[in-house]
From TrEMBL:
<keyword id="KW-0548">Nucleotidyltransferase</keyword>
<dbReference type="GO" id="GO:0070567">
    <property type="term" value="F:cytidylyltransferase activity"/>
</dbReference>
<dbReference type="Pfam" id="PF01128">
    <property type="entry name" value="IspD"/>
</dbReference>
<keyword id="KW-0808">Transferase</keyword>
<dbReference type="InterPro" id="IPR029044">
    <property type="entry name" value="Nucleotide-diphossugar_trans"/>
</dbReference>
<dbReference type="GO" id="GO:0005829">
    <property type="term" value="C:cytosol"/>
</dbReference>
<protein>
    <submittedName>
        <fullName>2-C-methyl-D-erythritol 4-phosphate cytidylyltransferase</fullName>
    </submittedName>
</protein>
<dbReference type="InterPro" id="IPR034683">
    <property type="entry name" value="IspD/TarI"/>
</dbReference>
């Protein structure tokens, strides 16, 4: 079984809106529903869990019904940090999924995830036990010496830019969150599952990424998202 955990626990203050950015309506549909539809449509996704900001669980339930997201099985509360939110989502699945099931973590504010990206991350996780979507980096990266200057750069050929979806066998992700919180490794100053895994000594495997799979963080990102929907309106704006 392949289970998606969609992280929608944040308040999104950088967007400058009154409502959390995952619930902002774009052409009469909340951002989060665009994201959920990507998973709903994918034939290899069996169930969806949403880690949701408190006070919005009922709204999410109503939207899921309205837009036919019937793979949505669980809605759980977010935590104080991104790591706590993911951990809540993982622990909630204990006893409900099998150890060798694949759990796919995805940001609720990445609404343009497409089928091929999801398929590849699932296949790679089935093969290696984990997989993170990624792309080569095409800008130059400099390390700051101080607030105003630098003398060092990192060769971009050595870099990969990682995003979500990320997929892990359930036994791996569940045991590693327990270990991380018990030993306090990989959770402070490490904001996501991928960096926590590496801090706990796990080798990560790359899956295909996509430039289209943007994270909606600022108002400009929202404009880009709208422009994309309009440019491909036959598929998105029915
Ligand atoms: C994939 C990710 O960049 C972590 O590697 C993730 O999107 C980060 O999300 P955040 O909410 O900006 O920490």
């Amino acid at each position: 079984m392949n289970v998606a955990i969609i992280i929608a626990g944040g308040s999104g203050s950088r967007m400058g809106q009154d409502i959390p950015k995952q619930f902002i309506n774009v052409y009469d549909k909340p951002v989060l529903i665009y994201t959920l539809e990507g998973f709903q449509k994918h034939p290899q996704i069996d169930a969806i869990e949403v880690v949701c900001i408190d006070g919005w669980h009922d709204v999410l339930g109503a939207y899921a019904k309205q837009f036919g997201i019937d793979k949505l099985k669980w809605v759980v509360s977010g935590g104080e940090t991104g790591q706590e939110s993911i951990r809540n989502g993982v622990y909630q699945l204990e006893g409900k999924v099998s150890q060798d099931d694949i759990v796919i973590i995805h940001d609720g504010i990445r609404p343009l995830v497409d089928e091929t990206i999801l398929t590849d991350v699932i296949i790679k996780a089935q093969k290696y036990g984990n997989a993170v979507t990624s792309l080569p980096y095409n800008e130059q990266i400099f390390v700051i010496d101080d607030e105003v200057s630098t003398t060092r750069f990192i060769p971009r050929e050595t870099l990969r830019r990682v995003s979500t979806p990320q997929a892990y066998r359930f036994d791996l992700i569940d045991s590693k969150y327990h270990e991380a919180y018990e030993k306090e490794i990989g959770i402070y100053g490490s904001h996501y599952t991928n960096t926590m895994m590496v801090e706990l000594g796990v080798r990560l495997y790359f899956a295909a990424g996509s430039d289209k799979n943007i994270k909606l963080t600022t108002k400009d990102d929202l404009e880009m998202f709208k422009a994309y929907l309009k440019s491909d309106k036959d598929n998105w704006l029915k």
